[in-house]
Amino acid sequence: MKTLSILSIQSSVVSGRVGNSAAVPIHSLFEQETLRVDSVVLAAHPGIMRATKFIPPIEQMRCLLQELRDVKPSSEINAIQTGYLGEIEQVNVILSFITDHPNSLYVYDPVFGDNGALYVDSLIAEKSKSTLLPLATITTPNMFELSYLSQTEVTGIDSAIKASKIIQSNGPEWVLSTGIYSGENEIADILVTPNDVRIFSHKRQSTGVSGAGDTLTAILTSLLVSGEPLENAARKACNITQSLIGLSNSPQSMPPLTLDLLRK
Question: Is the pLDDT of residue 249 over 60?
Answer without folding.
Answer: no
